[in-house]
Amino acid sequence: MYKVSLMSIDDLKEAYKIECEVNPSPWKYETFLSSFEVGHKGLICKHDSEIIGFIIFSPINPEAHILSISVTKKIQSKGVGSLLLQSMLDQCAAMNYKKIFLEVRTSNLQAINFYQKFGFSKDAIRDNYYSDNSEDALLMSLSI
User: Fold this and answer.
1) Helix ranges, 95-134 (H)
2) Can you tell me the distance from the alpha carbon of 112 to that of 120, in angstroms, rounded to the nearest whole number?
3) pLDDT tens digit string along 38-94?
4) Could you tell me whether strands 50-60 and 99-105 are parallel, antiparallel, or unpaired per DSSP bridges?
5) Is there a contact between 86 and 119 (Cβ–Cβ < 8 Å)?
6) Are the C-beta atoms of 101 and 141 separated by less than 8 Å?
7) Sign, CA torsion 36/11/1/81
8) Which residue of 24, 71, 90, 114 pairs with 53 in a disulfide if CB–CB is 3.0 to 4.6 A?
């Protein structure tokens, strides 16, 4: 059984391992840590006592910006990402947020399709957005 809860500072090291496992250009650990110091929020998903996924977002009412979402490779395509994203959307709706934004690599068709299943629309391209390879980002949004 999967359980979603708020991410705490104590969860960061375990979540960061997932970030490094699945992200082609992972954040530095210091960036991961400082995101909480500046007020970003996170949710984790656990199976038994192991963190298997997380989502980090920046809430700036009336909007939120998804900064990172990752699920460990061994459990991808089992609904964990959907559970995390839906939990985040529910939380934002309960706080009366109106719009959610995110950027995704234009080559990451699996992620783009995932977000479109939740109703996100394609809004714009951000040229040379990713510093590791200058890949463009697709800006997507969802009104809630």
Assistant:
1) 109-117
2) 9
3) 999 999 999 999 999 999 999 998 999 999 999 999 999 999 999 999 999 999 999
4) unpaired
5) no
6) yes
7) positive
8) 71
Q: Both tokens of residue 65?
A: 């910006």
Token couple for 33:
């840590």
**Residue 30, both tokens:** 């210091």
| Edge-first strand listing for the sheet containing 2-6 | 2-6, 41-47, 50-60, 63-71, 99-105, 137-143, 121-126
From residue 7, how far is each of 15, 47, 98 by CA, in Å? 9, 14, 23
Provide the token pair at 54. 């997380």
Place of tokens 């995101």: 35
Query: Taking the CB of residue 102, how many other CB atoms lie within 10 A of it?
Result: 21
What is the C-alpha separation between 62 and 110, in angstroms, rounded?
A: 28
